[in-house]
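Troubleshooting: if your tokenizer reports a length mismatch, compare against these two reference records.
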Amino acid sequence: MTKRKIGFATLTPEQLRERASLGGQAVSQDRSHMAEIGRKGGLKTASNKAHMSEIGRKGGKNRHKSKTPG
């Protein structure tokens, strides 16, 4: 009994390359939109100072735990 191919598994390598290139074109054509999304995400994250402080504290504790004396 053979498994039936579904979805992307049914496409030829050429068809897969064509589809992949379309995604890359869509993103690169709207760089200003993508930059704006990144800015908004950064502002939202940075505005939650308590959350960012907690992340930094955990990172610092873990870094110092893993160091060996010497």
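Reference record two:
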Amino acid sequence: MLKICRFWPLLPLLMFTNNWAFAADNFKRFEFQPFAGYSVAGDIPLEDDEGVRHGSVDVKSSYNIGATFAVNLNEFDSIELRWQRQFGEGRLPEEFAQPLSSGNPLVFNLNIDQYHCNFLHQYEIAGTRAMPYVMASVGVTTFRASRSGEGDSSSYFSFAIGGGVKYYFTEHFGIRGEARWNPTVMSASDSRFWCRVGGAGAACVVNLKLSLQDQLDMTGGLIFRF
């Protein structure tokens, strides 16, 4: 046990100094990665076309799960499909509450599904098994909200930029960590979707202008190559 404890602090050093010819001889066309992580979510501003602020939808930060499936175009470039689900909670501003409503109509369950196409460019570090990368993606984010057994969903355009690092233990198996900025473009429409979910009634409907819901995703998972 003592030997293991002594070895553990050396693991990061070995990851970047272990001489291993990874590139051409070990090229694999496909990669599959299940992952989990945490999403730091930003609020959704409720501001109308005249610039009047009507509070914001508070989106709670929460954990996420998902998976990617990648096609490697060559040793350094790949395209992948990415699905992520975030399990969270939303809350409407106080001014949207109905005076005589029962319970708390402002709070509701909020799951966020994201479907993206990722573009990755990797960098080789000579003599190591680690490959850092940068990424950019575009796709659709779907907000699935529910309260008291009733639910609704609405989808919006989203994109992301970020980076991470892959580390391959063998030619078929590795790990991956990633951080990315992931904004969703909330369309210029009224707030009817949030009102229906929160049960706050038609009085809360506001004609909104175009806005962004910012989010920071931090994920990690396994890599299976074939």
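Descriptive notes for reference record two:
- The two ends are 35 Å apart (CA to CA).
- The chain has a mean pLDDT of 84.
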